[in-house]
Amino acid sequence: MQDAMALAMNLAAAAHGPVTREDAAAEVLDELCASAPVAAAAVVAFDPISRRHIPLCVTGYPASVLHFCAHPHFSATTSATGCW
Hints:
2 strands; alpha+beta
């Protein structure tokens, strides 16, 4: 439980302060990747007006996957759940 609390505190601290959303996302992703091994990860925002996912920080994904995820069809199929 203490590890989970420490991770939660570190994530909150990483995303806090006068930084850009991309910088905050990079700090959050760094913290998450340090807490567990990952092959690829992303922090994204969903824009409900344009109905598109906006990657804020990405690591480990090949360019072809990022291109697919930016396609409007991908956003249309995932926007119902809000999951990326």
